[in-house]
Amino acid sequence: MTMGAMILLEPDDRALHGYFSRDYAPVVTVAPGDSVRVRTLDAFWSAGPFAGGEHADRPKVPQHRSGYGHALTGPIAVTGAQPGMALEVRIDAVVPASWGTTVSGGRPTSFNTRYGVTDSTVVHTWDLDVTAGIGRNQYGHSVALHPFLGVMGMPPAEAGEHSTIPPRTHGGNLDCKELVTGSTLYLPVPVPDALFSVGDGHARQGDGEVGGTAIECPMDRVDLTFGLREDLTLTGPVAHTPAGWVTMGLGDNQTDATYHALESMFALLGRLYGVSRRDAIPLASVAVDLRVTQIVNHVVGVHAVLPPGAIR
Known about the structure:
Layout: E1 6-9, E2 16-17, E3 28-30, E4 35-40, E5 72-78, E6 86-96, E7 99-105, H1 110-115, E8 121-129, E9 134-137, E10 142-144, E11 148-153, E12 171-173, E13 184-188, E14 196-202, E15 219-229, E16 238-241, E17 244-251, H2 254-273, H3 277-287, E18 289-297, E19 299-306
Parallel strand pairs: 1-4, 3-5
Antiparallel strand pairs: 2-5, 4-15, 5-14, 6-13, 6-15, 7-8, 8-9, 9-10, 11-12, 11-14, 13-16, 16-17, 17-19, 18-19
Helix pairs in contact: 2-3
């Protein structure tokens, strides 16, 4: 990927949206090799830190309207992107703002019913010390920050507006905590010009995102560099991260998501090491780890991880 121009993109009236749609006009257009510096709101469209009271009543930015999903910034058009190609997104920087919020309960999901918290909402507010890399909640608990974007993706090929909540093969609400600074994400392009959008900043999240949210936070700075790969035929998201190569599977249940992640990993092992699928299976059995990405967004996510140096 060659280096190009740096373009600035703010979450303003032009760029903020709460659905994926191929019908949305791009707010910026970049060429392969160009970089975009993006600022994002938190997933809740919050106008500022949570100050107590009912979480649902917290102030929202003026662009928010009922029924919206995550607050996304974009779309970004990538010149030359066409279905059948892979979009390459290099994550050069992810810098959170100084505050975040974690919310659980209060929703009639199967998980909250099992947890017994459907009749109340639990809110943890976080002060984020970005310099020290530490987040502290109102109860005095501290965690090391591990910032990434929960949503990075493109709209489905079908016309109309589509929810931001379920992850899809061409990205969206992936919620994969490995997509930190220094990672490169590869996604199959579903629509001409890609129309890529981002949002749902997470200062930290555990695998699974078991309560439904992470430390949801605005991002003061996200630097992304775009490329196109005509040599990659992908069936789902793939990433090269500090944790290693990652292939992501999605499904209605954990078994289906696991098989999708593994099939993608077998294909990746073939590209990396020139092995057949027959030999990729035993290699994966001894070198690849499976992790639950998330279980709370209508679609289950599992990712397979090939750590650095695991196969030599």
